[in-house]
Design goal:
Layout (H helix, E strand, L loop, with lengths): L14 H14 L7 E2 L5 E9 L5 E4 L7 E4 L2 E4 L5 E8 L4 H11 L9 E9 L2 E6 L6 H8 L6 E7 L12 H41 L3
């Protein structure tokens, strides 16, 4: 279920509580991605972000892979489903900074304003997906929830269709998207034509057998 407007109260922890939480967190980690508490009270750690992007992203052509359409030094292509990326961040990093860092890490040239970070959590045998505000701190949420991604995971998506900031797209990007859509439309059309041609051949073959003189 999507509960994008759901908001939980932000509970601030004391330095001692943070220290205890981190010790408990690290004792439960199974992938060596532990958190580190610094003397100034700021802690660092890792979060994993699953990419669930429906629209093509724009990257430098040297970094591109798969089906794409070119425009000068940039390439637009669809990211494979289920791609998960790991980021090393601090407790002071906000959602907006995490999105910017994630895009920069993979040479994505798109405007960060096109994307939103969601948290996915399990409650009472149900899965809830909630869009995070730009001011929230993902590492704090990770610390409070613990290291198990079954309890809490992060997902990067585009803004919903009604929220898309089309002014954030450049003309070359929009042109690339149109070329990709035209290509996909033509591919699907060819698939349909081939499918119905096969049906037609089989029907004609069956009819020929029925009406063939004995």
């Amino acid at each position: 279920k999507d509960a994008q407007k759901e908001r939980e109260p932000h509970v601030y922890l004391s330095k001692e509580e943070v220290k205890e939480k981190i010790q408990s967190y690290n004792s439960s980690v199974t992938d060596k991605l532990k958190m580190t508490l610094n003397a100034n009270g700021i802690y660092t750690g890792f979060i994993k972000v699953q990419m669930e992007l429906c629209r093509p992203i724009t990257v430098q052509s040297s970094q591109s892979q798969g089906r794409c359409a070119h425009s000068n030094n940039e390439t637009a292509f669809y990211l494979p489903d289920g791609c998960v990326n790991t980021l090393h961040i601090s407790s002071t990093n906000t959602v907006r900074e995490v999105i910017e860092a994630l895009l920069k890490k993979f040479f994505v040239a798109d405007n960060p304003a096109k994307f939103a970070l969601y948290k996915r959590c399990h409650k009472e045998d149900q899965v809830y997906t909630c869009k995070l505000s730009d001011r929230e701190h993902p590492l704090y949420l990770r610390l409070v929830a613990g290291p198990k991604t079954e309890m809490l995971s992060f997902v990067l998506r585009e803004h919903e269709t009604g929220e898309v900031m089309w002014e954030a797209f450049t003309i070359p990007e929009l042109q690339n998207f149109l070329r990709i859509l035209d290509k996909e439309e033509n591919e699907q059309l060819q698939i349909l034509k081939k499918r119905y041609a096969t049906y037609r051949d089989k029907l004609e073959e069956a009819l020929g057998g029925v009406w063939k003189p004995g």
